[in-house]
Amino acid sequence: MAAKLFSPLRLRGLELKNRIVVSPMCEYSSQDGFANDWHLVHLGSRAVGGAGLIIFEATAVSPEGRITPDDLGIWKDEHIEMLKRITSFIESQGSVAGVQLAHAGRKASTSSPWKGGVKVPEDQGGWQTVAPSALPFSDAYPMPVALDEAGIQKVLDDFRAATKRCLQAGFKVIEIHAAHGYLLHEFFSPLSNQRTDQYGGSFENRIRLLLEVVAAVREIWPTDHPLFVRISATDWTEGGWSIEDSVALANVLKTKDVDLIDASTGGNVPNARIPVGPGYQVEFAARIRQETGIPTGAVGIITDAQQAETILENNQADLIIMAREFLRDPYFPLHAAQELGADVPWPVQYERAKRHK
Ligand SMILES: Cc1cc2nc3c(=O)[nH]c(=O)nc-3n(C[C@H](O)[C@H](O)[C@H](O)COP(=O)(O)O)c2cc1C
Question: Which cofactor names does the annotation list (predicted)?
Fold first, then answer.
């Protein structure tokens, strides 16, 4: 039987050539938000390697929305040119370029992992962070200020303006980052949202900002372009956001022109006990898909072809989203095709290496 992993997927006006997605991965390699040669080679290699969709790392919609001063951004028109060069190369390889639009909220103004991952004070290139409530992520993180009405309007304006730039930069998929304890996830979870206005309290109020962001993006994003949302399906913590909440949210999002839920978990609470292991988040993609009918992407320690194929065969997800395996092997899709007996084209320049002998 033909491998499902190498079957195309149609989403609105877009066809992905296979089900393999490069998960967004921060490179912490930008200055002033600009993409550069690193991003071209890093992302370009995965396009050469046969991925169907490549989602650029968390890309900040505003300078204060960066996790670190080294994050990629799309808050000014000057950012577009290099992004366009990279998306054009990706398309030339038969792949599709997507981007994860992000605002880091109270987890902003920190340093990259290899600079210690610690808070960056304002006098050393850091900035005042914002959040639903004035509650730091932990003692090691900056104290955020609670967003007021004008601050919330700015977030919406920033997502809207970023979406215009995404179109100009040639992206075909936008993924809104509403996971991992960043701004939008902070609003969902009662552990980080203690507001008493229309953005806090009830479930409807806590998901309001995400719905407003979705609407702002969809005002600009063409109807034939897919829109994904990455969520943390659970906080893995008593009293926090749960899989039941995620199912309820997905039921709303599918009526708001969102096309796929990328089901990650965690990140909003330090020291959550997460049972990390092969495919440990697949059950969340499966449950959201089964209970709401919205397409999902499975992510988290998916590292081999047969494992990925089985997830699709079991109807647990529509896309297989992979991060670290792609750092070990940029050509994972080409290797997976050989393993599953699917004949996929290699770049003509590499064809002489397609057969072992
Ligand atoms: C280097 C690195 C950077 C990451 N950056 C992001 C990011 O920008 N946005 C995001 O949503 N997740 C990010 N993640 C999480 C991955 O997208 C993915 O969800 C996670 O690594 C689990 O998948 P894996 O087991 O295939 O690595 C990052 C992970 C790694 C390893």
Answer: FMN
- Is there a contact between 316 and 291 (Cβ–Cβ < 8 Å)? no
Check: pTM over 0.90? Answer yes or no. Answer: yes
> Does ligand 1 have an atom closer than 6 angstroms to the CB of 35?
no
For ligand 1, is residue 100 a contact (CB within 6 Å)? yes
Is residue 272 one of the residues assigned to a domain?
yes
Closest residue by CA, ligand 1 atom 6: 25
Phi, psi at 317, each rounded to 5°: -160, 165
Q: Whose CA is nearest to atom 23 of ligand 1?
A: 300
Closest CA to 307 of 289, 280, 334: 280
How many other β-carbons are positioned within 10 Å of the β-carbon of residue 304? Answer: 14
What is the mean pLDDT for each group of 10 consecutive residues in the chain (357 residues)? Answer: 95 98 98 98 98 99 98 98 99 98 98 95 96 97 97 98 98 99 97 97 98 98 98 96 98 98 97 96 98 98 98 98 98 98 96 84
Number of domains in the chain: 1
Check if 132 has its Cβ closer than 6 Å to any atom of ligand 1. no
Report the CATH number that the domain containing residue 170 is assigned in CATH.
Answer: 3.20.20.70
Residue range(s) defining the domain that contains residue 246? 4-339
